[in-house]
């Protein structure tokens, strides 16, 4: 460990790793460069936004049977949001990176130049990159800039540092091609779950809520810079806010809230749940709805659904989806399918069959807080597959791809989670809507009239014929058949 005084303020600066080039002074944010036997102040870097991440400087764990300690991080901002890159030091003195984006984690090691890499300007999602006998698929292509730094780092980085990166996946394997320098570099590793890393000194839920964001406390209240309406949000949990009053997109990742865009034409939502609703799911409370999106299929306004973003201080993020088919709980996949085509997908050696024709969906309403930028008018292409009640969904845009898995829920279970008597939407056809109740009432009336008609028709048989018993059977059978649609409608 190397100790020195900050050239700017005199505070002690630590270099834990022998390969660290710079360290950020904790007190004045000066970037301290270690060059041979001297240190230099090469300017200041922005403070990191304390967000939802449970990781902190000093967190330790094990990756690939090697012990590591987190010694630094940079925070990168791109058009749709920001993410953390944590720099770790292994016991043998080598370094690595633990990426932390929207509750997903990727551990990678620098393995040298990226051979035969396609020029960054030509890279697109779903391009293939061959490495170590495996075919990797480009999942997102983005240009980001450094907005904050902390602790020790292996190269000189300052505010305004630009990173051009392409992330690729193959099952649970993960690659990043970094085009920031003249020669692209390759970082290889895998998607990980923090529990698998046996991490120590993680921040707990209470610490996250107390320190997150620019203000203290679990919930912060900010006035919308456009209309002045109060915005309730989880500070640091999500930096992109859509005002429910004027539909302005507000970025809260900087020193002040900034209006990114205004959407006067956003439709009013028709969802069953609302922002701020709390749920107890599988014994964990509280999950809180922090964001709400409504979408419709392009070219079919009658095909619409709602997506709710839920946050839990310890568990992270979860999606709840309300559709005409019912309710679904969805999670973003850490491990991607082994292969996929237009008609089928293979995940964990199990084949899923295509459920619907490929379709595009447009965001028609958005409100609340998100960990990426959501805009009314955003269009995403969906491909859905199904196996034994489980669904896989591939969501594609011009810049990235995501896979998620969902399972169907009963409306009674959803109501139980949120402590409601029922969850009834008036927006979707065939989903317990008011129109469905009207249809049920009409059908019941028709069934009653039909039964009366059959009874009158069978009076002569009942009074004079020898077929009294068979007449009663036919009336009973007719009544039962006419009740079937009512039963099915009630069970949906």
Put simply, the count of helices is: 4
**Main β sheet profile:** 8 strands, antiparallel, barrel
CA distance, first residue to last residue: 65 Å
Write down the overall geometry. Answer: globular
Spatial strand arrangement across the major sheet: 7-8-9-10-15-14-13-12
Structural class: mainly beta
Mean pLDDT: 76
Q: How helix-rich are the residues, as a percent range?
A: 10-25%
Rg estimate, integer Å:
28 Å
* Count of folded domains: 3
Number of strands: 32
Classify the beta-strand content into a percent band: over 45%
The low-confidence parts are 213-219, 427-444, 486-492
Quickly describe the structure.
This protein is mostly beta strands. The chain contains 4 helices and 32 strands.
Could you please describe the fold and organization of this structure?
This protein is mainly beta and about 500 residues long. It folds into 3 domains: about 1-195, no CATH class; about 220-415, no CATH class; about 435-490. It has 4 helices and 32 strands. It has helices at about 205-210, 410-415, 435-465, 470-490; strands at about 1-5, 10-15, 20-25, 30-35, 40-45, 60-65, 65-80, 80-90, 95-100, 105-115, 130, 135-155, 160-170, 175-180, 185-190, 220-225, 230-235, 240, 250, 260, 280, 285-295, 300-310, 315-325, 325-330, 340, 345, 350-355, 360-370, 380-385, 390-395, 400-410. Strands 7-8-9-10-15-14-13-12 form an 8-stranded antiparallel barrel. Strand 29 (about 360-370) and strand 30 form a beta hairpin. The radius of gyration is 28 Å and the shape is globular. The termini are far apart. Residues about 215-220, about 425-445 and about 485-490 have low confidence and may be disordered. Pfam families: DUF4178 (PF13785). It comes from Chitinilyticum piscinae. This is DUF4178 domain-containing protein. InterPro entries: DUF4178 (IPR025235). Keywords: Membrane, Transmembrane, Transmembrane helix.
